[in-house]
Amino acid sequence: MNVLVTGGAGFIGSHLCERLITLGHKVVCLDNFYPFYDPEIKRRNLSEVISHPSFKLIEGDIRNLSDIIKCFTGNDIEVVIHLAAMAGVRPSMEDPELYANVNIIGLLYLLQVCQLHPVRKFIFASSSSVYGDKKSGAFKETDTDAEPISPYAATKKEGEAICFLWQRVLKIPFVVLRFFTCYGPRQRPDLAIHKFTRLLYQNKPIPVFGDGTTSRDYTYIEDTIDGVIKAMDYQDQGVGFDIFNLGESKTIMLKDMIAELEKASGRIALIERQPLQPGDVSYTCADISKSRNRLGYDPRISFTEGIRRFIRWFNSNN
Prior knowledge:
Layout: E1 2-6, H1 11-22, E2 26-31, H2 39-45, E3 55-59, H3 65-72, E4 79-82, H4 89-94, H5 96-114, E5 121-127, H6 151-170, E6 174-179, E7 182-183, H7 192-201, E8 205-209, E9 215-216, E10 219-220, H8 221-233, E11 241-246, E12 252-253, H9 254-265, E13 270-274, H10 289-295, H11 303-317
Parallel strand pairs: 1-2, 1-4, 2-3, 4-5, 5-6, 6-11, 7-10, 8-13
Antiparallel strand pairs: 9-12
Helix pairs in contact: 1-8, 3-5, 5-6, 7-9, 9-11
């Protein structure tokens, strides 16, 4: 199968490209190597696939129609997995216009080009942030009682609505995947687990926002990729549009996450208390019963094991 992966040089995207090629698919990767963090990190992410005959890299921007058209020209794209986005809750508070342009306008451009080609399925990467600042319980895809509290989350919720509309235009299956705090080798350097590990090894203070009791549903990268592949293979039985959580369905407090990093690294963290940040949610937890039942999604890597694997990767790459 010929698959277009937008944002394919990023953390999740590069792992997905590798898995797709291993499974025998042909991959076109679109990435603009935006300097949200060092672009050379993204280029290293692709080191395992860049020379593979089933992989093609197109350096371009989803806000540029001609770049998107290049991805489809002569490549017979059958499935689009749209990961490309401006990510990060806190940065979105500082530049909401950029987030709207990339995450909404870029999506619309991509869908317009899909309309001109025989695409068979569209998968959209959303986020647990669309659930807003819920305080307890497992988040279900049918929840309607929470609203986004950051521009990033708002663009993801709007993206879901746009996909719902365009499913009726394109008349192909659309699958929305709500990712819950993915971590593991190649995680973005600005994200907590990677950033805290780096500070641990530098013997520098770790900024802890709040009292350490905020919690996240951390999902190991291999489990997340398993979910994406299962969504690609999913036969929706005529539904046309569907939403699935991809999480671990367990919550880890911030202070416990730091404790796991200490245990796996053999180092002691220096804690620097800071106030909670605007846009940050205090809690996430995925209800994955729907994903288990319909996709066969079954996360297997425990948080303790995932942190051990991350630390091994960090030690060998830093």
